[in-house]
Design brief:
Number of strands: 5
Helix content: under 10%
Number of domains: 1
Largest sheet: 3 strands, antiparallel
Structural class: mainly beta
Number of helices: 1
Strand content: 25-35%
Strand order of the largest sheet: 1-4-5
Length: 106
C-alpha cells in the first residue's frame, strides 16, 4: 500500500467504518436493547506501513460484546471513494475486498 497518501492521524470514518455486528441478530430478541449505545466503540490507527494497519479499538461496553455462545462479528469497511488505500502502482481496493469480518473473542 502507498502509505504516503495519508497520515495515520487523518484516517477516520470518511476512509473506513468499524462496527460490531451481533451474531445472528441476537440483539433483536430484546426490544429494549440499544445497539448504538451498547455496541459502540472508538478507534484510531496506531500504525500503517506497507499493507499492515494496527488499530486501537475500545468498546464502551466490552461485557456486551459476544455475550452469547457464538462470537459477534467485527466489520471493517473501507470506503470505496477513499484514496488513502492505494497500492504502490496506484491501484485502489477491488470491490471484493472493501469489507473484512472477523469474530470478536470473549
Amino acid at each position: 500500500m502507498n502509505t504516503g497518501l495519508i497520515k495515520i492521524d487523518e484516517i477516520n470514518e470518511a476512509h473506513m467504518i468499524i462496527y460490531a455486528q451481533p451474531f445472528n441478530n441476537w440483539h433483536e430478541q430484546d426490544p429494549h436493547f440499544d445497539i448504538e449505545k451498547t455496541l459502540n466503540q472508538t478507534w484510531n490507527v496506531l500504525k500503517y506501513e506497507n499493507d499492515r494497519m494496527l488499530i486501537d479499538l475500545t468498546f464502551m461496553n466490552p461485557n456486551q460484546i459476544s455475550p452469547k455462545v457464538d462470537q459477534d462479528i467485527l466489520v471493517i469497511h473501507f470506503q470505496n471513494s477513499s484514496d488513502a488505500f492505494r497500492s504502490e502502482d496506484n491501484l485502489g481496493l477491488h470491490q471484493d475486498y472493501l469489507s473484512m469480518q472477523h469474530g470478536i473473542p470473549k
